[in-house]
Amino acid sequence: MYLRVRRPYRARMPVTRRTLIRGAAAVTGLSAGGLLLPAPAFAGPAIYNPFAGYPITDGWQEHLARGSLGGIDFAMPVGTGLPACGAGTVTNTPFNGTGGHTVTISHAEGYRSQYLHLSQFLLANGTGVGAGAIVGLSGGAAGAPGSGSSTGPHVHWHMINPAGVRINPLEYIANNPAPPAGTSGPMYHQLRAASGSWTGFRPLNGFQTSLPGNAKDMAVAGLPDGSAQVAIIGADDRLYHRVRQANGTWTEFQPLNGMGTTSPAQGKRVAICGLPNGSAQLVLVGADDTVYHRVRQANGAWTEFGRLNGFGTTTPAGARDVAISGQPDNTAQVLIVGMDNGIYHRLRQTSGVWTEFQPLNGNGTGATAQGSAVAIAALPDGSAQVVIAGGGGQLHHRVRLASGSWTPFAPLNGVGTTSPAVAKDVTIAGLPNGTAQVVIVGADDAIYHRVRAGNGSWTEFNSLPGQGTTTPARGSRVALAGLPDNSTQLVLVGR
Ligand SMILES: [Zn+2]
């Protein structure tokens, strides 16, 4: 089963029916800019605990107490897939003394992670992996080949710092925490030419400042005139919009008003798409978790926000994430992660009339697929390409054909593995040449990109370097849009 199903679908009410705006319109000091200055970078590579679901049978101190150099033991059945705790390069060391079969992941900045007592290696030496890629199978049964000194099924995990000293991975993670959801980061933009070359990330200035700005979420849409429309949730939770014109010049950020008020809208997530008729469709998860929609007409005028009702109810839909695609026939398709973590889809007809939200089933089940992030993009053939970070963040793709029928969810593999990539955020763009491009924030917070050719075949994920470095860019939110010249515009909430 591809998609973890937690419970059957149940109609979901929004938490409140408050309007978007909160607080006064007064603007002073830094918050007047709304977009704060970048926070300091992390001290080391991003690592997560892939074994959080398994009991610790022997902790760090217990290891030291019995003369070990340190480690943490997680009990799990022999043969359990061992996900990489962070991006890096794999080295296998068979029969590594008391450690038995040992896999080492060499991360950025001189850090390493080691898993001991494996029953099986899966990847060749030198394989590059993203976080979440399965690097081997657990072992540890007493006396089994590869178990070393282990007396029972488990994996032993420790890290090694750049000085060569063993360190406690859970302590490392605690000292290098991933920012909680809703944390802002610096805004970046870059362009991928039709040839496939990238300009590299460049900072975007904030509202009413020439300094780099911060945002919590970003969205971008391509329009037929070659412009790109950028919408963001600023560090102040306000909704801002700006345009990158076809000649590469930018208008300044302007706040967009909330529903029934001249004060700026406030929200958590934003998505925007362009239509062939020159309009842009914006969907917003408001500060009240409700889904709102408005249209930027081709002449630049905005309609007012309206609420979108939920599945099987006339009350507004609540959502954790939102995505929208502009189809060649001027319809738009909206995808959300509901408050129940279910994935729902609806369509806005050219007339402006909406179909109702419908749950998308997981494969081989009548239950609603579950996920944490959604993306959708249109192709010239009228299809919609859907990518979700499903249960556990595992990346899956499916297509809604122009006929309205759906292909099954298929996993998208991570770097150097046939296992699904694990993503914290995902975006997809469709291009006039029939290709689609996917960018994700991996489990290690690095930014990865891949291309789906018109024939449906995929290139592998490649990490995108950060500004002024060859190491992967890191961030929390990504958005991608295709332009008529087959270039793509990428915006990133960085670290
Ligand atoms: Zn151990």
Give a topology summary:
Layout: H1 29-33, E1 56-58, H2 60-65, E2 72-75, E3 81-83, E4 88-93, E5 102-106, E6 112-116, E7 120-121, E8 128-129, E9 134-137, E10 154-160, E11 166-167, H3 169-175, E12 185-192, E13 202-203, E14 214-222, E15 228-234, E16 239-244, E17 254-255, E18 267-274, E19 280-286, E20 291-296, E21 306-307, E22 319-326, E23 332-338, E24 343-348, E25 358-359, E26 371-378, E27 384-390, E28 395-400, E29 410-411, E30 423-430, E31 436-442, E32 447-452, E33 462-463, E34 475-482, E35 488-494
Antiparallel strand pairs: 1-2, 2-10, 3-9, 4-5, 4-8, 5-6, 6-10, 7-9, 10-11, 12-13, 12-14, 12-35, 14-15, 15-16, 16-17, 18-19, 19-20, 20-21, 22-23, 23-24, 24-25, 26-27, 27-28, 28-29, 30-31, 31-32, 32-33, 34-35
The structure holds zinc ion.
Morphology call: elongated
Number of domains: 2
Q: Give the beta-strand count.
A: 35
Which percent range describes the beta-strand content? 35-45%
Please name the fourth-level CATH homologous superfamily of the largest domain.
Fucose-specific lectin
Helix content: under 10%
CATH topology of the largest domain: Neuraminidase
- Class of secondary structure makeup: mainly beta
Low-confidence stretches: 1-42
Largest sheet descriptor: 8 strands, antiparallel
Bound molecules: zinc ion
Characterization of this structure:
GO terms for molecular function: metalloendopeptidase activity. Pfam families: DUF8189, Peptidase_M23. Residues 194-472 form the PLL-like beta propeller domain. It contains three helices and 35 strands. It has 495 residues and is mainly beta. It folds into two domains: 56-175, Distorted Sandwich (Glucose Permease (Domain IIA)), CATH 2.70.70.10; 185-494, Neuraminidase (6 Propeller). Strands 1, 2, 4, 5, 6, 8, 10 and 11 form an eight-stranded antiparallel β-sheet that branches. Strands 12, 13, 14, 15, 16, 17, 34 and 35 form an eight-stranded antiparallel β-sheet that branches. Strands 18-19-20-21 form a four-stranded antiparallel β-sheet, with no helix packed on it. A hairpin with a 5-residue loop joins strand 30 and strand 31. The radius of gyration is 23 Å and the shape is elongated. Bound molecules: zinc ion (ZN). Zinc ion binds next to loops.
